[in-house]
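User: My advisor asked me to double-check a structure prediction for Diaminobutyrate--2-oxoglutarate transaminase before group meeting. I don't want to rely on an old file, so could you generate it fresh from this sequence?
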Amino acid sequence: MTPSVLTDSSRAVGLNVIAERESEVRAYVRDFPTVFKRAEGCMVWDENGKAYIDFFSGAGALNYGHNHPEMKKAIITYLLDDGMVHSLDLATEAKIDFIKTFDELILKPRHLHYKIMFPGPTGTNAVEAALKLARKVTGRSTVAAFTHGFHGMTLGALAVTANRRKRRGASRPLEGSISLPYDGFMGEDVDTLDYIERLFADEGSGIDVPAAVIVETVQGEGGLHAARLEWLRGLREITRRHGILLIVDDIQAGSGRTGPFFSFEAAEIEPDMVTLSKSLGGYGLPFALVLLHPDLDQFLPGEHNGTFRGNNLAMVAATTALKQYWKDGAFSEEVLKKGHVLRDRLQAIVDAANVSAQVRGRGMMQGIAFEPHGFAEAVSKEAFVRGLIAETSGPENEVIKLLPPLIIDDETLDDGLERLEDAIQTVAQSF
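Assistant: Sure, here is a fresh prediction for Diaminobutyrate--2-oxoglutarate transaminase from the sequence you gave:
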C-alpha cells in the first residue's frame, strides 16, 4: 500500500470512531472532516501533515492563537510548582494575580469600577448569571433581546437567543423574553430605536418594562451584523431612561476581537453588566466572568455558583495574556489596522465576485454575506480543501465568517484571503 493510502485509511478509521460513538449532535467535525494532530499560532495540521490556516480560532476562543508559547510556559511552570488547579471560589495566588492584573490593565485605564463575578467557566453560564441577577435586582421577570442574537444553549440563555433552529432544540416553550429589532433589521431607512422607545414608553404596548436588555455589539452567530455606534449610544440612553439594565454580551466580540478590549468602547457607553468568556482564558481554556456595577452585587453567598468556576490554569493563562498584550494600547491599534486591511480585502473580493454579496462585521470579526442559498456553505467546503478553516454563520448559514487569531502576521492573513478568494471564484462558477 502507498503512504497516501495508509494515511487516508488512518483518517477514515479515526473519523469512523467519531461517527460510531459520538452523539449525532456533533457539528464542526462534519464541516471539517479530518483528524487534527498539532496546532501552533495561526496554523493547524492534521494527522497526514496537511497544514491549514485557521480563520476559525475555536469560534473566537483563540484570539492569541494556538499554544501561545508564553502562556504555555506559564501553565507548565504553574503545574510543575504543584499550583492548585481546582479551587471552586477559594482564594489562590493565581486568582488574586488575575484580579489585580485585570483591574490594573483593563478596568482602571477605562475608568470602570465593575465588581467581578466568577460563574461557571462557559459563556452561557455567564449569561445565565447575568439574567438571574438582573431579575433579582429589579424584581421584573422579562428580558429583552434582539433579532439574530445568540447568547448560549442553556434554557435561560436560549430564551434570549433568536435562532429558531437552536430554540427548537429546547423542546419546550422558552419564556421570560421579548424580541426587539436589531440595528438595520427593518432596513437602512428605519431607526429601530424609535420602535424600541415607543414600546417601552407606551402603556398600551402590550409588554411589561423588562428587567434588562441584552445585546451583542457585533452578532457573531447571527450573521455578523454590527450595530452602529450611535445606535448603541441611543440604546444605552433608552435603557437608562426607563430604568432597564443594559447587559452587553462580549463573549465573542470582546477580549480585543474588534480592536479595543471591550467591543463597546468605541461607542463610549458603560453597560450595567458585561459577560466575558471565550478568549478571556487566553489559551483556549474554559473561563468566564460577569462584570457588574457594585450596586448590582446583590446575590447572596453561593446563590449562583459552579464546581469549575475556579479554573486556575485559565487564570494563569489569562493573566499572562493581559500582561503581554494589554499593558498599553499598541496591540489594540495593531488589531484595528489589521481589521481595516481585512475590510478592504473583503470588499475587493466582493467587488470582483460575480455574485450578490455584502461585507459585514467589525475589526477582526468580519465576513461576507452571500445572497444565493447555500453559497457560503459551499465556500467553506472549498476553502477547507485549500487549507483554510472558516465557518459559516447567520440563520441560513449565509455568511462566511472570518475570525483569524489576532496575532496573525500580514503574510499569513494575505495567504488565507487568497485561498478564500479562490474558493469563492470556484463556487461562483456553479451558481
